[in-house]
Amino acid sequence: MTVAVVQFGGSNCDRDAVRALSHLGVDAERVWHEDGLPSDVDGVILPGGFSYGDYLRAGAMAARSPIMDDVRATAEAGTPVLGVCNGAQIGCESALTPGAFTTNASARFQCEPVHLRVENAETPWTAAYDEGDVIEVPIAHGEGRFEISESKYDDLVADDRILFRYCDSAGNITDNANPNGSRGNVAGITGESDHVAVLMPHPERATLPDLGRGTDGQGVLSAFA
Fold this sequence. Notes:
The protein has 225 residues and is α/β, with parallel strands linked by helices. The longest helix is centred in the first third of the chain and has 10 residues, at 14-23. It has a single domain (2-224), classed as 3-Layer(aba) Sandwich (Rossmann fold), CATH 3.40.50.880. Helices cover 18% and strands 26% of the residues. The protein has helices spanning 14-23, 67-76, 86-93, 150-158, 218-221, and strands at 2-7, 27-32, 43-46, 81-84, 100-102, 110-118, 134-141, 145-147, 162-167, 186-190, 196-199. The protein contains 5 helices and 11 strands, in the order E-H-E-E-H-E-H-E-E-E-E-H-E-E-E-H. The strands form 2 sheets. It has a 9-stranded mixed beta sheet with strand order 2-1-3-4-11-10-9-6-7. Helix 1 (14-23) links the parallel strand 1 (2-7) and strand 2 (27-32).
């Protein structure tokens, strides 16, 4: 499988994503957004960073890059697409998934390890885990607060589209375990089809053993393996 890691002006996690995928035996290449998406890719990652300096809103300008038309088309064709952190913001702004990511409740940039509880283990992104598993991965964001209307949130729950929720180390969903004020402690969701997903935490930063951050993120990226 060849995964395209889309690089926008201001992306800074594209190399991390390529290295993490390579560690898992997945061929990956960075694709500059102005060059368009290659027709033969088997997967797409929208990586983290600060695309276009987060002007207007985080992810808003990147979502209007012509390459996102290619990403939407390949997603509609069934290709796995994952947005991570800024890529998650771009995914929501591009209507790949519902909702939006806004300023953290703390009004601060949050950079720390967090615990996530697996809510649905029957997706490509969570198949390596069991429902209820607790994993630890890092976050690094200033606008990671997931917001969505109550009715659309209820739809996410009813359709089992929530992948992960922020929790404590024992798996309890609490306000104190919610680092950014996201509705329902939501950390990641799927699109209408589960081969498309957005995730605010960084699984690629918890994939390489040598980084000392554990390897709990490998299960997410193994969807591309």
